Amino acid sequence: MNIAAGTTVAALQAGLPLDPLENRILLCYALDLTRVGLITNSERVLNADEAARLSALVARRQAGEPIAYIVGQREFFGLPFHVTPAVLIPRPDTELIVELTLERLAPRARLLDMGTGSGAIAVSVAHTRPDAAVTALDVSAEALAVAAANAHANKADVRFLRSDWFAALGSETFDLIASNPPYIAGGDVHLAQGDLRFEPSGALTDFADGLSALRTIIQGAPAHLVAGGWLLLEHGYDQAEAVRALLLEAGYGEVQSWRDLGGIERVSGGRRG
Questions:
Q1: pLDDT in tens, 159-169
Q2: Three-state SS across 183-208?
Q3: Which of 60, 74, 237, 268 could join 257 in a cystine, given CB atoms 3.0 to 4.6 angstroms apart?
Q4: Domain ranges of the chain
């Protein structure tokens, strides 16, 4: 779309070829305006530079690039998170595992977030519960840099560790381990659709049956959980039964699944005996 200089903000709010929310987000970002500013500046006209900038942003969105990557930010658990193509875009479904974690963390408890990505789980917990000792790990140095920036921006005290799952933990133990690991099966058609086309494939899929990362975490977690410690895992919409079976087979107690706002069993977990 080629936006002409001299076009008003009001005309663009009504005429951009995106849904109204995306229109507002891109206009605010391109013109450095708040939501209220869009209203109070409705008759403002764009200069040539602004028109070119907005045209380029709209073209990127029309090509399918996620809004969060275009503007570099996504809200999660009431906090702003910087995002880049090095990390998954935080989704509302993942707020469930944060809520379940907060419910189970005793005062001054130790939390491990495995495969932290943008830091969404770790930073949200640390921000809400500053008494907790929160550790977050990821195998990607680029993801850890994004997560560390988010912790700093949200004044959350998180220790970050580069590790391929449990490899760098030594004999450390935690009161709770939470993870949103890659759980989409390799070859799944969804990987070639929508926002997933632009997100890091290694954070989405295990390139196998969708359960290999979950198996690794379930099998390795007991060595790093205190007695009675919880393991909480986010998984795919159709994986709850399989994850519960893996947890039971590994000897966890109180195995159960919890549903997200859409009614889908999104998180499963259990306690170390």
A1: 999 999 999 99
A2: CECCCCHHHHCHHHHCCCHHHHECCC
A3: 268
A4: 9-63, 86-271
